[in-house]
Amino acid sequence: MLKVMPMKNLSYLFVLVLSLVTVPLVHAGEANGYAADYGMLLSKYVQEGEKQGIKAMLVDYASWGKDPLHKMTLEALQQINPESLSGKEKMAFWINAYNLLTIDLIIKTRETESIRNQGSLFKNVWKSHDWEINGKRYTLDEIEHQILRPMGDPRIHVAINCASLSCPDLRAEPYTAEKLETQLDEQTTLFLTNKTKGVSVTNSGLKISEIFKWFAEDFGGEKGVEKFIHRHLPQTSDKKTDDYFDYNWSLNSQ
């Protein structure tokens, strides 16, 4: 015999189903809104320049830190539930989060020389500072090595910025799920064609960023690194890695 569910139970069921359907959408919307505010800050305080002989996107940390929008954007980030995100949206969120939190670190510590100064004898800077996001605390080290790298796309290494001159440049716009593939390819090309820190063709071969040494396994080993470079810079297809740039950890400040 078919039993009719009481109206009270039906009401509870309706609310439960509605919450399951709408919560991820709300969180996705919050992520997009936060990225828009972050984009406004990037457009105002990041510009192309050259410092110590290295071409880079330089940041006006002093002005950024005084802008009330920074605190608002950071607070909006911290309220987002990353677990509600997936795929490209998740990757874009965490790249943006890493870069914004790095900027926040420089601002709140008032560092003017090098991000590495903010570490200690026992922990490097990427493990020494953490931030709360949706009730859970994250360090930059955790975001990079436990969240982004396991996603399996080596291009994240040209997207995250460690506030240093030799780092791949901070993009002057936020990463978004809709444009992520194009943005990552553009960042790759920009970094590899930067002869002051990415790749330089010499008489004896290729002089490349130490990033490709530190994270060679993410590219499939040393041969994988060369294949990656050759794919994006076909004109270097007959060249082998011969040397590495000395990594300049000076702050990428204006």
Structure report:
It is a single chain. The strands form three sheets. This protein has a three-stranded mixed beta sheet with strand order 5-6-7. A two-stranded antiparallel ribbon has the order 1-2. The model is unreliable at about 10-25 (pLDDT under 50). It has nine helices and seven strands, in the order H-E-E-H-H-H-H-E-E-H-H-E-E-H-H-E. Helix 1 packs across helix 4 and helix 4 (about 85-110) runs antiparallel to helix 6 (about 140-150). The protein has one domain (about 25-245). It has helices spanning about 5-45, 60-65, 70-80, 85-110, 125-130, 140-150, 180-190, 210-215, 220-230, and strands at about 45-50, 55-60, 130-135, 135-140, 200, 205-210, 240-245. The chain is globular and about 50 Å long. The longest helix is centred in the first third of the chain and has 39 residues, at about 5-45.
As laid out across the biggest beta sheet, the strand order is 5-6-7
Tell me the domain tally: 1
**How much helical structure, as a percent, in the residues?**
40-55%
Distance between the termini: 76 Å
Series of H and E elements: HEEHHHHEEHHEEHHE
Radius of gyration: 21 Å
Low-pLDDT residue intervals, each spanning 5 or more residues: 12-26
Per DSSP E runs of 2 or more residues, the count of β-strands stands at: 7
Count of helical segments? Answer: 9
Overall mean confidence score, pLDDT: 91
Overall geometry comes to globular
Q: Indicate the structural class.
A: mainly alpha
Percentage of β-strand residues: 5-15%
> What profile does the largest beta sheet have?
3 strands, mixed
